[in-house]
Write a structure and sequence with these properties.
7-stranded mixed beta sheet; binds 5'-O-[(S)-ethoxy(hydroxy)phosphoryl]adenosine; about 700 residues; 21 helices; alpha/beta; 8-stranded mixed beta sheet
Amino acid sequence: MARTLPKQNAVVETSAAQIAVHWREEEYYYPSAKFVGQSNLSDPDINERFSEKNFPECFREYADLLSWDKYWDTTLDTSDPPFWKWFVGGKINASYNCVDRHLDKYKNKAAIIFVPEPESEAPVSLTYRELYVRVNEFAALLRDFCGLKSGDRVTIHMPMIPELPVTMLACARLGVIHSVVFGGFSGEACGLRAADSGSKVLITMDGYYRNGKLLDHKAAADIAIETAKQAGTVVEKALFWRRHADQNASTSPFVEGRDFWVDEILPRYSGEIVPPVPMDAEAPLFLMYTSGSTGKPKGCQHRTGGYLAYVTGCSKYIQDIHPEDVYWCMADIGWITGHSFIVYGPLALAATSVIYEGVPTYPDAGRVWRIAERLDVNIFHTSPTAIRMLRKSGHDEPTKYNYHFKHMTTVGEPIEPEVWRWYYETVGKGEAVIVDTWWQTENGGFLCTTKPALDPMKPGSAGPGMPGIYPTILDEMGEEVHAGSGKAGNICIRNPWPGIMQTIWGDRDRFVTQYYAKYCKDTNSKNWQDWPYFAADGAVQAVDGYFRILGRVDDVINVAGHRLGTKEIESACLTVPEVAEAAVVPVVDEIKGRVPEVYIVLQPDILPPQHQEILAKVNHVIETMIGKIARPRRILIVPDMPKTRSGKLMRRILAALSNNMNTGDITTLANPDVVESVRVMVQGKEVVALTDGPEDLKAFGSVD
Ligand code: WTA
């Protein structure tokens, strides 16, 4: 029977696809002979091997980097589009692949080096042998003390400490699906995710260091458990790792029979070995919640075999990780970058992966470079926000330290060419190759990037599609926007790949609607060619085939490389009873790329003396329901929102006002006069010079 798909919100007015983008073409930079000589991927034949005529079997190459309990029969099963299945029939365990299989050769090598935020605490190394012991003991605890078995879900709300990968790998050993929630998210945000995934166990910690302070993290667990309960899920056990032996960083009381210190239970399982469970390649490995175009975050469900194969391939060929390397990715493990490129990819390759607990500029702008020097890091991975922050706070700091990177990554946001050049010249000392990797939580691993020894770098451009990834830019009508046309459009991936998520946890329909409805012309088709993946990013492609990513075309704001849904923030605002309407828009920020700005309309009977208190309430509710990362730049109380005659709130106009951009034609609005009064509020009485604004903000036209 034909399935009918609800269409994505139609894009209104200016869309990315209609905008001509003009910028200076940047010059190429080339990798050094030294880098090329040692690279894992210096054979240009890769392009041929991963070309369309060899799809999907080309991905065997990645899967063959792993150790399988049972080899698969079918590389790609397309019988139920767009629910692709990879390496069907295969059995594999992710924990075995990241730990056990390295013992023969590397048991005494550091798997993880933990750098605590306080500089008075020395870095701690965990060898592969030690990781093996800890993962096994904790897996025994999960199995025997918590009664967890394969297919169960566990929510993990932990900071950047080695116990986090230990916990993840212990889950993976049993086939328990982990759902790590970023430690900076509030207790409520964590609780809602725990409820959505049906987690009966929460694993967290008493506290951690951030900017010189030992934060109480347990308090968030109490809120999370209460929130989950209200949402219908009872968390039966909460396990707390401890930041300092014999201390408690939290003042909140333990609940008898529910809360347990890990270090009090773990000795019972001392020396236990838990056999890794051979999992179906298609068994879910983890959930990672991310923001989308509705208020409810979606649980991206990643498969075991395909995901692990894909991140291992990306780590080997794009990150150029060798077992001898000291690799440092500064992302948080609570985001997809940390899952793929701190834990699973590097450990599958027997690398040494560095985990830093704290703030990059604590206690000063030289901290990152001191860590790099002390540990002799040679591969470095971070986001444009961190690069901008380090550049601003210590432009010449890197020159003071004796470290040498061979390879650096930028990920998460578009990087400005001048920031790229600082990264290259000053951080990389002109020696390190840079990859600008474009991808998303949904994708498992990279989609567009240069191959570091093979393709020249171009500041500000991610590069061509990854081997085996065939990107294209489509306009609103589904027509291809050609390379070199100077026109932007929606970047899509024409084909399935092993790292793509399986579905949205518990919501198949939303998976289809969100990513495939927009461009699938025949929903009965079993051909993957009919199912382009819609990434919700605007992009342009230069004549050389390189993609430049402009930013989101939906209502997601990328704050400091982290995804926040405008709808999530708006829903939080609306829980304040005095708020009648709320609209959230992105504002350009020098360091964080974008920050949210909030507009609210109050209930009719509210008087100005109450405004201050309401603003404080709105601020507070955003922090408690989502987290400090969602803190708005400003909250503006406005008399009314600009609306179309059919009553649709025009966020695009508010975004234009907040960014001193042209609002465009407003005469068709139901209330055009409101725009002027809001403009005066936002920009002051003087007319501010209006610009056409950054190109990617123009693409934000589609949010309304
Ligand atoms: C943005 C992070 C430009 C993009 C891995 C995407 C980028 C969103 C880049 C996904 C890049 C990611 N250049 N923009 N190299 N990488 N983005 O899910 O808008 O946290 O859709 O995954 O970040 O963010 P997410």
